[in-house]
Amino acid sequence: MGAERVYDLEDRLISFAVLVCRVAATLPPNREGKHVAGQLVRCGTAAAPNYGEAQSAESRKDFIHKMRVCLKELRETRVWLRFTNEFGIGDPDSVEGALEESGQLVRIFVKSIQTAEANDRRLS
Fold first, then answer.
1. CA–CA gap between residue 23 and residue 77 (Å, rounded)
2. In whole angstroms, what is the distance from residue 71 CA to residue 8 CA?
3. CA 68/CA 19 separation, integer angstroms
4. 20, 40 contact by CB (below 8 A)
5. How far apart (Å, rounded) are the C-alpha atoms in residues 43 and 21?
6. Which of 5, 65, 98, 123 has the most Cβ atoms closer than 10 angstroms to its Cβ?
7. Model pTM above 0.70
8. Quick check: 77 and 43 in contact, CB under 8 A?
9. pLDDT per residue over 59-94, tens digit each?
């Protein structure tokens, strides 16, 4: 029996950050492309380190707050990816893949926050 890989959300967030940076690299070097690329790189790389901070939160409320920051950055990334798609810049396949992954990550974080809040209420 081989060892199964344990699901690691931090690894997935890092892979997502790399994917978003690759999308940003496909954007044109004009004013619009540079602006969108900068926004994508900023918010698209923010969730992973914020999730790392959440893992060493000082309290359950601090954990929830840090998870909400991750969710905020993921949602912002999703909006910029949708804009990129609508504007017709960048590699369409890469943008579509990043959009799909951002949607999955948003759903994971929404559920995680809901669970943490429910546990916080139950323990209070």
1. 11
2. 17
3. 22
4. yes
5. 10
6. 98
7. yes
8. yes
9. 999 999 999 999 999 999 999 999 999 999 999 999
Give the CA-trace dihedral at 47, 50, 56, 57, to 10 degrees: -110
Phi, psi of 18, deg, nearest 5: -65, -45
Residue 3 and residue 29: Cα distance in Å, rounded?
Answer: 45
Given a contact cutoff of 8 angstroms between Cβ atoms, the answer to whether 23 and 90 are in contact is yes
Amino acid at 109: F
Residue pair 95/22 in contact (Cβ under 8 Å)? The answer is: no
Which residue reads 């590699």 in tokens?
91
Residue the block writes with tokens 């809040």: 117
Q: Are 69 and 122 in contact (CB under 8 A)?
A: no
Token look-up 């323990």 returns 123
Cα–Cα distance, 101 to 78 (Å, whole number): 9
Annotate 36-45 with b (16+ C-beta within 10 A) or e (fewer).
Answer: bbebbbebbb
